[in-house]
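#dry-run=false #mode=assembly
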Amino acid sequence: MLYIIGLGLGDAEDITLRGLNAVKKCHKVYIESYTSLLSFGLSSDGLSTLEELYGRPVILADREMVEERADDILSEACESDVGFLVVGDPFGATTHTDLVVRAKKLGVEVKVVHNASVMNAVGVCGLQLYRYGETVSIPFFTETWRPDSFYEKIRRNRQLGLHTLCLLDIRVKEPSLESLCRGRKRYEPPKYMTINTAIEQLLEVEQISGESAYNEDSMCVGFARLGSEDQKLVAGSMRELLAVDFGPPLHCLVIVGKTHPLEDEMLDFYTIKTEALEPKEKCTT
Amino acid sequence: MLYIIGLGLGDAEDITLRGLNAVKKCHKVYIESYTSLLSFGLSSDGLSTLEELYGRPVILADREMVEERADDILSEACESDVGFLVVGDPFGATTHTDLVVRAKKLGVEVKVVHNASVMNAVGVCGLQLYRYGETVSIPFFTETWRPDSFYEKIRRNRQLGLHTLCLLDIRVKEPSLESLCRGRKRYEPPKYMTINTAIEQLLEVEQISGESAYNEDSMCVGFARLGSEDQKLVAGSMRELLAVDFGPPLHCLVIVGKTHPLEDEMLDFYTIKTEALEPKEKCTT
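#status=ok
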């Protein structure tokens, strides 16, 4: 049996009881390291926290390992229970569909343990999840590669009054160009797109395309470390958010569509206030 | 402190460790009963299972109670830790935004514990979550009330090649018309829309509107009891799914847009096969 277990967004505590019970049954436990480990506080220390909680060793499975050694993992899952741990939900922002397809083709039974993902946890800002259009990904621009397919999607969403979730690029364990040329793999240091970079790129594309999909005054919500104890949510115009320091990764961004009054009320709690506010009394009931 | 804690989709085991730790700290624990308790196996028995797990009593808070007594709940949360348990994610299909807004206005601190919701767990069928358009709700048609605003949204999603998640109507503790007239509240028995009813209504609206948003041959995925041990997923045309008995609630439906090859491969595992298949060998690695 292959258990694909979502770990949720915050830290080790965000696993479900169902997930924990499954991990404890597994003879071998892998954890994907190629999406968002850093956000999960998973330095080598973090891994030992997990191992303590689970009562068994956890093997870091990076992208290469999963792609190159999937058959080995699946053949283990044929004989005994194998756990594959995934940050967020197994079918959230990142796809683990390929592993499931391979497993099913080999006749390996698969059980999925769901958890929160960015795709639903953004609901915390008060924008209703059923009012989102297509989700977009914003890749890091380079000198020569500036893909902008997100622009047309955002334009359509906004035309329909829908909110747009922008997933921001993560580059972990990318072989450096230089090392590829020399035939020996060396890796670039990990890179996580900030909300600030995302907005700069968005505004650059708007300037070039000029179809007025959005502008500096368009309302957005920036999320850093969503689901963690120290998550940071700020609502404001693109211009305002450009000046906010959101701190460590992961970041994501929502471009706000047409809002209902309840959505406005909720957003208001996260909005950048320019005037000094009266300090709010605590618990005034 | 008000803790709003997502319980996930399956049963008591789907709470996260973070959620469980929070519940155990709370002096008073409410559970919303107005969205999807039945799906959660929460008869009065189910409630005592939860109480055993949490080590404290759990108060059923139906829609009336939450709406009419929100201020009482919040004033308790002012003085001590109060837990409010929600099936799925606190900001998933149903909104608890109103309670949060009220709490924040009163200066009551709010902590949210995320979990899986229908909105992300539908990913299990292999259709990529970022390829969904706007989510629609399909309400029960009556003799005189046949709202069809979902039609235009589905049409737009399909034009763009996007998948559409259809949330199906749930009617729990609705006062009966007769009882309202007599001035004494009596409630209709709970009613959960099946995939079959949803498809019938969808096809009826298509026939009237005639804009070819979809037809009997349009590919869909039906989900029953998503996230539970006995969940049922079937992929097929609307016509095919009309004949499937999905069993007890909750049901939801995805109308498939344009698919990528990996999505097709995954859907194939859930597709109704008309020819007899060779029995699949188990674990053929």
